[in-house]
């Protein structure tokens, strides 16, 4: 169906108009199948999607030769701390390698980023964007990836010894997982639907292996407030959040 479309010109006497073939103007030309092309050199990245903060980031870059001839590639591998929209990029690691790949084989190299290279450079999201670019005689091959630095756990314990309606007694705890003190520390406490203004509470530094602890009482003046959200921030840990059900 659809191979031939015929219409009839308007006539004063029905059935006496001349037929007109409008197939060419009505139907768009059929698209032809695209030719599949394969790069002589393909670049692939391998890394964990999440890395515990304080642990090294290991990225493996592999160049595969799909051709019957050997190929040389100059590959630059870069890891950048970014926000979700890729704004405010800060390079945390980079490596360049020149590889010659035999026909049908592959060559790999790795970039190891020690924690001291990314600590203090992370954004709230803890996201690191990875990109490898290979300069080839016939053009450019690119591979991209994303990984996240996992923040430590912030424990939010809601105590049951309330003395008055709306009182929320809480206790917070978090261990410093780094081999460096936590500095410029701040805390935000929020009772959703009850907190009117979010305030940053300055805190003391947390030493290496030290335990951050804080307890207190807040007032929930809305019956719909069901949780306490605590957010710990420091120069080294940009955003650590814990939630406790009330």
UniProtKB/TrEMBL annotation:
This is Transglutaminase C-terminal domain-containing protein. Residues 42-132 form the Transglutaminase C-terminal domain. It holds the Pfam family Transglut_C. PANTHER family: HEMOCYTE PROTEIN-GLUTAMINE GAMMA-GLUTAMYLTRANSFERASE-LIKE PROTEIN, PROTEIN-GLUTAMINE GAMMA-GLUTAMYLTRANSFERASE. It comes from the Eukaryota. One of its GO terms (molecular function) is protein-glutamine gamma-glutamyltransferase activity.
């Amino acid at each position: 169906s659809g191979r031939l479309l015929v219409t009839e010109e308007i006539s004063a006497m029905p059935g006496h108009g001349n037929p007109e073939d409008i197939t060419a103007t009505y139907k768009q030309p059929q698209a032809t199948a695209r030719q599949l092309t394969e790069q002589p050199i393909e670049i692939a990245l391998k890394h964990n999607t999440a890395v515990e903060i304080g642990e090294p980031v290991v990225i493996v870059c592999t160049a595969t030769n799909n051709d019957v001839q050997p190929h040389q590639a100059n590959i630059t591998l870069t890891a950048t701390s970014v926000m979700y929209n890729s704004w405010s990029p800060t390079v945390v690691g980079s490596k360049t390698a020149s590889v010659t790949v035999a026909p049908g084989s592959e060559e790999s190299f790795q970039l190891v980023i020690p924690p001291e290279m990314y600590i203090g450079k992370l954004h709230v999201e803890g996201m690191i964007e990875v990109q490898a670019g290979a300069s080839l005689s016939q053009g450019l091959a690119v591979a991209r990836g994303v990984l996240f630095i996992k923040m430590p756990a912030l424990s939010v314990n809601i105590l049951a010894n309330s003395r008055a309606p709306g009182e929320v007694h809480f206790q917070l705890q978090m261990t410093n997982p780094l081999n460096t003190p936590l500095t410029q520390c701040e805390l935000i406490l929020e009772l959703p639907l009850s907190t009117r203004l979010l305030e940053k509470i300055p805190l003391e530094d947390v030493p290496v292996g030290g335990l951050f602890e804080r307890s207190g009482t807040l007032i929930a003046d809305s019956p719909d407030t069901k949780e306490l959200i605590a957010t710990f921030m420091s120069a080294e840990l940009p955003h650590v959040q814990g939630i406790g059900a009330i």
